[in-house]
Amino acid sequence: MNLRYSLIIIILLFGFASCKTASNTKNSKTSLFKDEVFACYYHNKFNGRKTASGAVFSNSKLTAAHKTLSFGTKVKVTNIENDKSVVVEINDRGPFTKGLEIDLSKKAFDAISHDKKAGKLQVKLEIVNHSKK
Q1: HSE on the CB side for 25, CA within 13 Å?
Q2: Domain residues for 62?
Q3: Which of 5, 60, 109, 119 lies deepest, with the highest CB count within 10 Å?
Q4: What is the CATH number of the domain that holds 108?
């Protein structure tokens, strides 16, 4: 009798493990951080200046500023309107304008923008990895 219950438990455990793997395959590397928030981009005047992390800012790199996420954290930013995504690395603090959640480099902003003249986008933020910096 105990052997039968042990076998049933083992079969159930394998069944649950395989279901979890199959259902999370697509999003196994990201976790939702914020949904329906606004992103903007850095002005070119910041090129060459040091960021809060000490890195030199360049609008031609895939980087971003966030008020609380650790430096080095990779964030997948998805434009809600067109579902385009880009992965950026947090290397600065900001934005400091009310209603904005993340400041993207111009390269990152352009990669997901539906309108090259837009000043801000409504986005979803997903954490790709957490940095320990």
Answers
A1: 6
A2: 27-129
A3: 109
A4: 2.40.40.10
